[in-house]
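Bumping with the actual sequence this time:
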Amino acid sequence: MFVTGNPVKTVNIHPIERCASVIGGSLLAAAGMRRHTVGGGAMVIAGSEMLRRGLTGRSFLYQAFGVRTVSTGQGAATTSVPYELGERAHATITIERPRQEVFAFWRDVTNLPRFMKHLKSVEVRDSKRSHWVAQGPAGMRLEWNAEVIHEVPHELIGWRSTKGSELDSAGSVQFQDTSSGGTRVAVDFQYNPPAGSAGAFVAKLFGRDPQAEMQVDLIRLKHHLEYAEVPRKPV
């Protein structure tokens, strides 16, 4: 089992299921209290947990497996990973190159495998859409489609995986000027591992600490842009 590290605590249980948990938990706890045995004590504990999940609307098991029975709600049409699900990571770095140059390099998504070690290739489909391939141990592959959903030239790129992809993911990268004339890059990334063997593969692919993995990727990006030869458009 791959346990997600998202600390966000929001409702992930459908109202009908919550009601059933409250009723069932109350009955189970009451029956346990009448028994005065070890088994009765276990019934009280189980009933109390059912009451908690029903009253709060939060299931720890659901969050661990990255599932929910409540509807996605507002923003469902543009949200690949519900806010409270999945693994989240945030990383920043300062690159001593002009913001326009750093933005242009990232916006050409075919450049991403040059510094993101888990990516094998990114193929451009059109101005917004692309196809991503990740490759891990023993030649295992994971593929998904992504689309840019928000873009502010030289400042922000937001993307998400599209419906039917093997990996549900979403993220954004922001570009800000620094006082030295460089660029501060800030990345936020979220993904929800699929179930079964594919989920185990994703866990190995991104590592136990995806935030640390992302920070290492950004260090590679910094090294590439500051020390490698970067193609520049003619003035």
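The tokens above came from a reply further down the thread. Strands lie at 87-95, 119-124, 129-135, 141-152, 156-161, 168-177, 183-192.
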